Every structure is written in C-alpha cells, then in structure tokens.
User: What shape does this take?
Amino acid sequence: MNLEKKIATRQSYGEALACIGKENENIVVLDADLAGATKTDIFKKAFPERHFDMGIAEQDMISTAAGMATCGKIPYVSTFAVFAAGRAYDQIRSSVCYPNNNVKICATHCGITVGEDGATHQMLEDISLMRTMPNMRVFCPSDDLETRWLIKEISKINGPVYVRLARLATPVIYDETQKFEIGKGVQIGEGTDATVFATGVTVAEALKAKEALEKRKINIRVIDMHTIKPIDSELIIKCAKETKKLISIEDHSIIGGLGSAISEILTEKHPAKLIRMGINDTFGKSGKAEELMKYYGITSEDIIKTII
Assistant: This one.
C-alpha cells in the first residue's frame, strides 16, 4: 500500500469513464449539475455529445437513463449518493430494477467522509437501500486501480449496477499485477488471529491496523469486499473457519450494510460472532472527514482496540 499516494475513487471514476468511452460508443453519461464534483466532466471534455447535464432533477435523470438503456445505450448516471439512492429511489426501483434495465448508477460523496457537507449530505443508508432491490448489483471499490477496473468491468454486465464512490482521497492499495473478479473479495494476508472485512475507504484503515498489529505479533487478514452484492459467501465462511475473530468495518450504517450482509451468510451457513464497526444507528454531523472517522470509530486505531 502506498500511503504517500492518495487518490479519491471519484477521480478514478471520471478518468476511467473517459477511457472506456473511447472503446464503446454506446456509453453515455448523465449528471445532475455536479459534473465537476463527480468528475464526469472529464468524460464531457472528451465526448461532449455523449454527456448530458440533466440539472437538479435526479428523478428525471434516472428515468431518462432507463429510456436510453432500452435503446441500446449504456448509461452511467452520477450525482451525490444522498441524491442518487435517496431522492431517486422510486425511479431506480420502478424504472431500472423492476424492468432490469442496463443502467450504471455511480454515486459519489457517500458516507461520513463527505465531511463538512454535514448530516443531510452524508448518505449512510445507500448500501442497505440498493442491495435489497432485485436485479441490482452493489459495489464499493477501495482504491484507484480497483475503481478503474470496476468501471470498465460493469460495462460488460447487462443490468442495473450501483457503485459507491468516495469524496475523500485514499491510499493506493494495489499495483497493476492485482487481479480482481466480480463477486470475489480480495484477501490480503493469511493471519489467523482475526479477519477484518472492509469496503471502500475503510480498507486502507484495515491495512494500517494489520501493519501495526504485526509489530505486536498479532497476525490478521484483511478482506476487501469491493462486491457487496453478490457477496463472496465462500470467502466469508472460509475466514470464519480459519480465524479466531471476525470484524466488519464500513463508512455506512451498521444496519443493512456490509456487516449485515456478512451476518446473513454466517447465520445461514456457518454461525459465528461478527463484530460490526460502522455508524451505529445515528445520522452524521459536520466536520473534517478524518475527524469524523475517529468520532464514529472507523479508523485503524479502533480496529486495533477491537482486536486487542
């Protein structure tokens, strides 16, 4: 992991869009007056005729994307997560998921790491909302390379997709040799003292904890769950059998998110205790992203305390 080099996954998303736009002329991009923040303006500069600014009309944007999908286009739709998953929920459910339309919803500025935008803009429920809908696939990449791979890979999936992207710049974790697969978590390390399941911005925190714990002779493994639906049930059960403690950590409510998804697998297939770390049934608040992560207990230090 390169702690010095940090890139926000929303930036990686924008750059990846421009790349795949060259490869597939059916890819179109819709944004809701936030192209500078979501980084779809990178695609706009390259392909202005295929970028559509729908204004502050997220519900209309989703419905328009659904219509484009029925005509053979591959729409990538972007706005902040609070608007994508919240304001446009009905349109996603009725116009995208129910008819199984080929729409890629790439929502940026998720979780408490939106920071100073405050509680109204800190979407902590989107994983829960999206993963309960039939036909929807849910992803939350952790770094630059994983995001670039994912944005290209989902163009090959015929059906609804929700991708959760962060505002906060995070360390580059992977290099070009890393192989990813839809529906398969990435295991980092072979430690048996604990497994930490993480997603998005919390993967880097889990890896920092892993490095610090090694100095205390405590060996853990980190699972990067970039795919939350369909989740990697085989890897979850494998880790439950091989490690002494199971922890999940996410920049999301502990209700309905990654921890809940893992608990469902464990309950049905291999009963084991899971400690869920995340936002504990409360709204966020305004503050710097790093300070909020400490306040809500989703940092490497909090992982270390939980394991020790």
Q: What stands out?
A: The mean pLDDT is 97. The first helix runs from residue 9 to 23. Residues 186-307 form a domain with the Rossmann fold fold (CATH 3.40.50.920). The first strand starts at residue 2 and ends at 8.
